[in-house]
Design a protein that fits this description.
2 copies of one chain form a homodimer. Chain A is built from 12 helices and 13 strands. The first copy, chain A, is α/β, with parallel strands linked by helices.
Chain lengths: 306, 306
Amino acid sequence: MSLLVVGSVALDSVETPFGARDNALGGSATYFSAAASLLTEVGVVGVIGDDFPIEELAFLRDRRVRLEGLEKVSGRTFRWKGKYGFDLNSAQTLDTQLNVFETFDPKLDEWARKADRIFLGNIDPELQLRVLDQVQNPKLVAADTMNFWISGKRAKLLELLKRVDVLLVNDGEARQLSGEANVLKAARAIAKMGPKYVVVKRGEYGALLLHGAETFHAPAFPLADVLDPTGAGDTFAGGFLGLLDRLNTTDVGALKQALVMGSTLASFTVEQFSMDRLRELSMVEVMARFGSFRALTHFDDLDAIS
Amino acid sequence: MSLLVVGSVALDSVETPFGARDNALGGSATYFSAAASLLTEVGVVGVIGDDFPIEELAFLRDRRVRLEGLEKVSGRTFRWKGKYGFDLNSAQTLDTQLNVFETFDPKLDEWARKADRIFLGNIDPELQLRVLDQVQNPKLVAADTMNFWISGKRAKLLELLKRVDVLLVNDGEARQLSGEANVLKAARAIAKMGPKYVVVKRGEYGALLLHGAETFHAPAFPLADVLDPTGAGDTFAGGFLGLLDRLNTTDVGALKQALVMGSTLASFTVEQFSMDRLRELSMVEVMARFGSFRALTHFDDLDAIS
């Protein structure tokens, strides 16, 4: 099995009520691959500048993440600066510097073209389409997007959605894309745009999966201390697709397990700043927390009451 | 088994983006007993004015709700007027008229004093304490409260909490009562004030139960059409305590089933204005939806991944 992610590798400056970090490792492809590589073979396509502290990615190499698709070009690395208040569900963006990402044109090598599963991180839908034009016959294509593309590149995004099997978005994005205030109506409207499966990520409230006429819900793991929610969504996507790739199926049972795995991995990311928790994370810890979602959500049948 | 509720029986005027109703049946004791009476024997203690359309309660009598404790006094019935926007999670209160509730002094008859389980709806903590002073030896005491009492009658509320087994509050109330922004920390802090079990209701995001060091989560049932969220919290409490009373236990398994039953019943309430949906609701429908929470939340074990 093999899983390709196309997205940003970034340096983030983040402030939350619990601390701050400057130029810490970030980016959608980074969080995604850090999570998914615990579960399956992952390759990254992205771009960094010549200022990028490459030793920061050593832990990904240790997890055998394929970094051959990570171009290094002259210039500064993509940077994001943001701030969270006590409502950790939404960040206030203070600054975005595309830098080398501005001229990024993803080029897939032989391995990447043949990947079984693809995750198109939150980048310009035109670039996401260019990636799809290069892949051969993937078993599953998943994508993320954001408000900026939903309003600014809607036609291209809709063209993309016809070619996507799974769309993963947060609830605000689902509402904006569909024009529906109700999250279930929003997910159903998005499914009509193309994706067979729609995942709505809701921060501390968990995630909802729409598959056909059915829904499945995974709560966020209840945590007393959330230090930095940055990257939770991409970690979630990494756990979700990482498990689907490992299990090599999209049957309903696997989709449900994958949603819980996404929620499991995301719960570790937010416990520390940047990728500090993901960096040291072991599958023993992951499996223990995955298992604890049963006590959190499962209940016994009830004898009939009439 | 027997379950006593003390709370308001009201006339609500409600506006949502999907319609409006004037002087419709409402009140915490009404929603609670409509839900709980599907599961067990319920008695109501409350007060109505001489303007109250008593025929509105016929369906409760049909469910054998004991209305002997519902005093009728001279004056106008308690009235609440509120409005919801597209965010149906919180109401804007436009008007509250306590009317006959202003001088309400709950008096419990023999049946009520001997009830197995008590739900103290959201009223003045002094009145809640006066009810507790009259009951004999209940197996379980549960209570609700709100921002008004948390800020205005904190000392009395804290006195009450020492005598309460279950506190059911929404997340804003949990935060205000505990001074903790994080919902898990908030629930833990509340448990230290007395209640063995803390239920945090989170509207469309479901509910969290804290029992000892453990948590359990029930999502809200995903609905495409929510017409009027009024009464969802009290319906939830009615389903939760109704099932605990019927099962006559508070073991962990029953608590989990009760949380799901609360969520199940609340999901019907919001499908229509006022008590229209609860009024006609059958246990066949309830058991079917309770069962569908399994497909919504349960997932298979995962083989070990190392």
